[in-house]
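Sample entry follows:

:::
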Amino acid sequence: MPVLDPVAVRVSGRAVGLDPESVGRAFPHAGGRLLVLLPPPGEDEGAWSRGPGAATYAHQLARLLDWTPVHLRVADAAPGSAGAAVSAALQRLVESWPVEVDRIALLGHGAGGLVLRAAAGVRPTSTGGWTARVSDVVLLGTPYLAAAAPRLATPVGVRVDRRWGPITTPDRADPGLAPLDGARYRLVTARDSAPRLLGRVLGGLLWWRSTLTRRPRRADHLFPTAEHYDLDTGGAPLTGHPEVAAALLDWLA
């Protein structure tokens, strides 16, 4: 079985080299606005398919708003460790891009959003870093609370506890990472996955009583500046929902 690179920029199902010549060939119609799409680790651009004949978010935004889609694939790894590789790849991509990059939008699904968050936390040392060009971060179904895993948790108990909300653990998402300056954050969750926590918010922290231990637990909000949209999906995936498509056209205009 071939060993996959930690992160790859993909076009037409193939990885693209990040040197100027390879990037120029892969993106012959490159524009100055980059839409970076990242599904969960281990998945590829097929995760954004909306069914036979249906336009994906990338196709719509390219056709109607002149965004150039950039599909990323990361190996099945923890978001934190993948973040540095994604940041390095995006920096190389921007430096090799055929035209000046004016604006970058990040679109992440599930744990892919956590990888993008970690990547944005790796601040380049130069003033021309890719993060300075990020205007929008859109997260679809991405866990947005970080709480320490309860001790003595059984697999069944963990599944029970997870029904209380989209929670991850600090080892997978550093609560201390600050949002990007000047970037607008939007978080979209499916209504049946929104937190049903009998808790309260104190500052940037959410407190609730764990179903596993019956003891109070604390969760940090990973995207404290984000606008949060709770969507009744009607069974449609967030990666291919007409209301999400319409919202993206509005947000990224």
User: Anything to note?
Assistant: Residues 79-96 form the longest helix (18 residues). The chain has one domain: 7-143+176-195+224-251. The radius of gyration is 18 Å.
